[in-house]
TrEMBL record:
Signal peptide feature range: none
Protein name as catalogued: Oligopeptide transport system ATP-binding protein
PANTHER family: ABC TRANSPORTER, ATP-BINDING PROTEIN, TRANSPORT ATP-BINDING PROTEIN
Keyword terms, alphabetized: ATP-binding, Nucleotide-binding, Transport
Lineage summary: Bacteria, Bacillati, Bacillota, Bacilli, Bacillales
Biological source species: Sporosarcina limicola
MF-aspect GO terms: ATP binding; ATP hydrolysis activity
Residue span, ABC transporter domain: 5-255
Family, similarity comment: Belongs to the ABC transporter superfamily.
GO biological process, alphabetically ordered: peptide transport; transmembrane transport
Keyword Transport on entry: yes
Keyword Transport: yes
Length: 335
């Protein structure tokens, strides 16, 4: 396995403007120095509450949103250095599936037209071949060829997400970024769509980035999971490792809210105090300190860096920092 995607020090700062002249008075650090990789054929789950920067990260990977800083290396190419024309061509290899398929499917277009569009945009196949492919892919995602002439409103939510997935597959991409693809669906439908995505991953050798707001949804689909809080990656590990031994207090709290099959093994839910702070005015030091049940004095002063605690398991928290206890004491003395 080799990384298909490598993200280094990715940042997105949105200026905060004030007054009649729109003077920039500060920045919302929506994504603040995020680094990770995704190996070919694997699924990386990215989890966090709304506003943590996970969707912004996803959109920057495709340059639907320009990064403020950082590097996105995909398939050996630095995407941030491509011209818009080169980027446009590269998008056939990276596709997105969105949370709300209804909003992302043009209501006035037939399914045929919707699924054909990415092929038209990228100049793939002639009209006859495209129409044949549309019908093939409808079957592949569990719909029928005769659905091609229908309109989005004639489908259920789950069927619409199947259409969204078919559309993402049309150009034969390598990477699919799925931004909360099942969050709007009933629980019973969720698992059908997740199963479909897993089958497609094998059949088409796909790599996934799967964005979700809770750890329950990504558990079975992800090989590795990253947890984001206020624009930062606070923990990342192989799934089994993360669920068995979460390190970051935020991950622990998120995980305590995920129901387990056997209620006798349900851990007591860790309720976090307060809301997510305003990202325009984040807390000092560790931005989680205002809600952290384990916070120490140093947490308000020093920003914890993401640090590899165990092989493949990194965490950004002073409880596990690369500094020894003595170093921390010294540092606190000097602050
Ligand atoms: Fe909590 Fe401190 Fe760790 Fe932040 S650095 S998560 S405040 S213990
Ligand atoms: Mg989002």
């Amino acid at each position: 396995t080799k990384p298909l995607l490598k993200v280094e020090n990715l940042k997105k700062y949105f200026p905060v403007k004030k007054g009649l002249l729109g003077k920039t008075v500060g920045y919302v650090k929506a994504v603040d120095d995020v680094s990770f990789y995704v190996n070919e054929g694997e699924t990386l789950g990215i989890v966090g509450e709304s506003g943590c920067g996970k969707s912004t990260t996803g959109r920057m990977l495709m340059r639907l949103l320009e990064p403020t800083e950082g590097k996105v290396e995909f398939d050996g190419k630095d995407l941030t250095s491509l011209t818009s024309e080169e980027m446009r061509k590269t998008r056939r290899d990276i596709q997105m599936v969105f949370q709300d398929p209804y909003a992302s499917l043009n209501p006035r277009h037939t399914i045929e037209k919707i699924l054909e569009e990415p092929l038209v945009v990228h100049g793939i196949d002639n009209s006859k071949e495209r129409k044949k492919k549309v019908r093939e892919f409808l079957e592949i995602v569990g719909l029928s060829a005769y659905h091609a002439k229908r309109y989005p409103h004639q489908f259920s939510g789950g069927q619409r997400q199947r259409i969204g997935i078919a559309r993402a597959l049309m150009t034969n991409p390598k990477l699919i970024i799925a931004d909360e693809p099942v969050s709007a669906l009933d629980v019973s439908i969720q698992s059908q769509v997740l199963n479909l995505m897993q089958d497609l991953q094998k059949d088409f050798n796909l790599t996934y980035i799967f964005i979700a707001h809770d750890l329950g949804v990504v558990r079975h689909i992800s090989d590795r999971v990253g947890v984001m809080y206020l624009g930062k990656m606070v923990e990342i590990a192989e799934s089994e490792q993360l669920y068995a031994q979460p390190l970051h207090p935020y991950t622990k709290a998120l995980l305590s809210a995920v129901p387990v099959p056997d209620p006798n093994h349900q851990k007591e839910q860790i309720l976090l105090e307060g809301d997510i702070p305003n990202p325009a005015n984040p807390p000092s030091g560790c931005t989680f300190h205002t809600r952290c049940p384990a916070k120490m004095d140093i947490c308000m002063k020093a920003i914890p860096k993401l640090f590899e605690q165990y092989s493949g398991h990194s965490v950004a928290c002073h409880l596990y920092s690369e500094l020894s206890g003595n170093d921390i004491k010294q540092m606190e003395g000097s602050l």
